[in-house]
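Render this sequence as a predicted structure.
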Amino acid sequence: MGGDEGSRIPGFHTLSPADRLDAVGRRSGLGNAGKAHLLEAGAPLTELADHLAENVIGTMNVPLGVATNLIVDGEEVLVPMATEESSVVAAVCNAAKQCRETGGIFASWTGPRMIAQIQLLGVADPHHARVKLLERRDEIAALCDSCDPMLVKLGGGFRDLEVRLLETRVGPMVVLHLIVDTRDAMGANAVNTMAEKLAPHLEGWVGGSVKLRILSNLADQRLVRARAVWRTETIGGPDVRDGMIAASAFAEADPYRAATHNKGIMNGISAVVLATGNDTRAIEAGAHAYASRSGRYTALSRWEETTDGDLAGTLELPMAVGVVGGATKVHPTAQANLKIMGIDGAERLAKVIAAVGLTQNFAAVKALATTGIQAGHMRLHARNLAITVGAEGEEIDRVAAALIERGEIRQDVAESVLSEIR
């Protein structure tokens, strides 16, 4: 570490954010300039952040851009995206513009149902126990709904029951699935509370020992789907269309390609999820698990030729997002971003997010199938390099332009160009 003390800081969690920052600064060699930056960058939201996370010393700002040109189910929408990755927002804007003539993106979803799992070990007669538990469906429903009367009043609550028998390396398990309509909330707290309440009853009904009681982020009862058509002449002709379809087939068949293909989709999706204060890790985990549901990891999207010879794209994945509760409700930036989108419900938010994922995927696949992804990335990277070497104001664009013109997008060249300019 840069300072003269170790990482052990007794009572650290009881300090104020400013005092924590002082303590970290002394131990890390952060210096006054680093401390001042963290204080200035985090000042407006540090108090709120201190309630959202632990051991807070400030906040880390992420660029917030707005994607334009999107039409989702016939409605124009501006979409805030929080991302540090170059080209993501621009890619969505360009892809959305190219399918406006066919009506934009069309989306659907299966409803706001979440799954809570309860794990039972040591059940002597698991098949018999499964049937006994299914017989108690109404009793289980009443116990679950009693946990959250307000959710029930809003039209949500318990919807269904599944009981699965798993063979594992530590023996058989009985796994109960509670399927719950969580309305406009993501719903983790609601379903976890229900699982906790139900657990002791299960042991009394069928024996065994209850262990885990937790939601599943493979929210396959809460799917969102998006589709769109791009005119072949608009995107560059049959060769471009066929190249994109071949790229899609590659991702469908090969997990090494599928991982990067799906990462491109999540570039767009995670940016909107983060901008609205939702759980990016939950969405990422659910998406990749869903891509593996057949037993082999594959692409989340599909690209095909229509009967008219145009390019059709489809995307399907779990989308457990909400507009009430958690950071979404208390973070002013998340609230402002929902306002920009004109969104007041989880359904519309899920559909817009899926639309962004599909357009992001279109842009990435098209670039890969034609000019390659690196040319665009390096043009944007040139600006980052200019900033890295100390360029300011109009110098940034001048340095970046010189790097692109020379075809040498490297830090040493950026330093040389900046010296020449100055």
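Summary. Residues 1-61 form one domain. Residues 346-369 form the longest helix (24 residues).
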